């Protein structure tokens, strides 16, 4: 899973260090061989994927159900790719998490850097490793610091640098409106754990406003808004089915790993209907 989601599990389990064993090709499997020799996690990763299939993870946004599927990309060569499917409430993402590195016939399939293993493999590859189209920039870990590398660079140990857990608030004014054509203003704040305002106009990561009509089982999108100097505001005109007594409204922020800021989520606020 990606770095932001993985750190949620590691924090829950009080993980302090992560060790990986990667057999980078430094002449061990020939100068014309593949980039990896296949002795370590570089060949065992797909068993980890299969073992972790259909896993449920507690996250600030709710329970995330994670599954994986293998997609055959060429029937003639048998090449394939793996996809990660993450469902939280009624929202599902489907991402490719593997790529082929090297040239045929000496290519290998490794996780992309939208996975923790792929990220650490790429960032530690001696001499650098070409990026993949799933990479949004240089594969630089935000929450992992390399503490040890063996003489061959095969055994690597990382310590965890956990992100700050921001504080977030939201309130509705008024809190009682008409279900259709009613208007309420959603205002709130976003700050670090020490109270320093977070400005999302800089990192372009907006605050997401959502509502739930089924007591929080699933969430529906309202709008994206910016927190300017730690404050956000949005005027919402409701267009909801009549007969509903109330809905829950919340704000969430996906965090900013580059600034070591974790996911933030407000307590759901009830919006009642007259």
Characterise the protein shown here.
It is built from four helices and 18 strands. It is mostly beta strands. The protein folds into two domains: 158 residues, no CATH class; 107 residues, Macroglobulin (MG2) domain (Immunoglobulin-like, Sandwich). The strands form five sheets. Strands 11, 13, 14, 16, 17 and 18 form a six-stranded mixed β-sheet that branches.
Number of helices: 4
- Total number of domains: 2
Strand content: 35-45%
Unreliable parts = none
Structural class: mainly beta
| Global mean pLDDT | 88
Rg is: 22 Å
Largest sheet at a glance? Answer: 6 strands, mixed
Total strands: the figure is 18
Percent helix range: 10-25%
Secondary-structure element string? HEHEEEEEEHEEEEEHEEEEEE
Can you tell me the overall shape? elongated
Distance between the termini: 44 Å
Short description:
With 274 residues, this protein is mainly beta. Helix content is 12%, strand content 43%. Strands 11, 13, 14, 16, 17 and 18 form a six-stranded mixed sheet that branches. Strands 2-3-4-5 form a four-stranded antiparallel sheet, with helices on one face. A three-stranded antiparallel sheet has the order 1-9-8, with helices on one face.
């Amino acid at each position: 899973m990606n770095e932001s989601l993985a750190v949620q599990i590691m924090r829950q389990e009080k993980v302090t260090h992560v060790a990986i064993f990667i057999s980078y090709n430094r002449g061990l499997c020939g100068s014309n061989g593949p980039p990896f020799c296949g002795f370590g996690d570089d060949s065992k990763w797909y068993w980890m994927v299969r073992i972790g299939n259909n896993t449920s993870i507690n996250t600030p946004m709710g329970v995330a159900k994670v599954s994986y599927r293998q997609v055959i990309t060429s029937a003639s060569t048998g090449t394939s790719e793996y996809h990660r499917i993450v469902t939280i409430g009624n929202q599902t993402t489907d991402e490719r998490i593997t790529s082929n590195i090297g040239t045929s016939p000496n290519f290998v399939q490794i996780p992309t850097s939208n996975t923790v293993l792929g990220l650490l493999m790429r960032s530690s590859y001696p001499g650098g490793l070409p990026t993949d189209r799933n990479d949004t920039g240089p594969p630089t870990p935000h929450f992992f610091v390399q503490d040890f590398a063996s003489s061959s660079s095969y055994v690597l140990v990382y310590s965890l640098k956990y992100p700050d857990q921001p504080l977030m608030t939201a309130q509705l004014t008024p809190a009682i409106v008409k279900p259709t054509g009613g208007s309420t203003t959603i205002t709130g704040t976003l700050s670090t754990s020490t109270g320093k305002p977070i400005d999302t106009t800089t990192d372009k990561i907006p605050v997401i406003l959502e509502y739930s009509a089924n007591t929080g089982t699933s969430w529906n999108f309202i709008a994206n808004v910016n927190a300017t100097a730690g404050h956000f505001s949005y005027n919402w005109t409701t267009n909801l089915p009549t007969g509903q007594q109330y809905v829950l409204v919340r704000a969430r922020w996906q965090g900013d790993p580059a600034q070591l800021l974790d996911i933030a989520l407000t307590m759901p606020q009830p919006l009642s209907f007259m």
